[in-house]
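step=predict obj=DUF2630 family protein n=81
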Amino acid sequence: MDQEHILARIKTMVDDERRLRDALATGQIDNTTEHAQLGQLERELDQCWDLLRQRRAKTEFGENPDEAHVRPSSQVEGYLN
């Protein structure tokens, strides 16, 4: 996935997150559903941001950005700032 596709995917997920929050606010979904779906979205967003950072770092250091890969959410979620 190239940088443009990753950024488009991130935008879509952010839009999905807003829709979920709106659906909760208007009573279309319950708290449990919103929490579960948001959790999944947040994990996928973290993976996309990580992939984007990997690609940018590889480019910066003269490596092939296509060698970057999606890491498991368990690994990405364990990162500290």
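step=describe
The radius of gyration is 15 Å.
step=end
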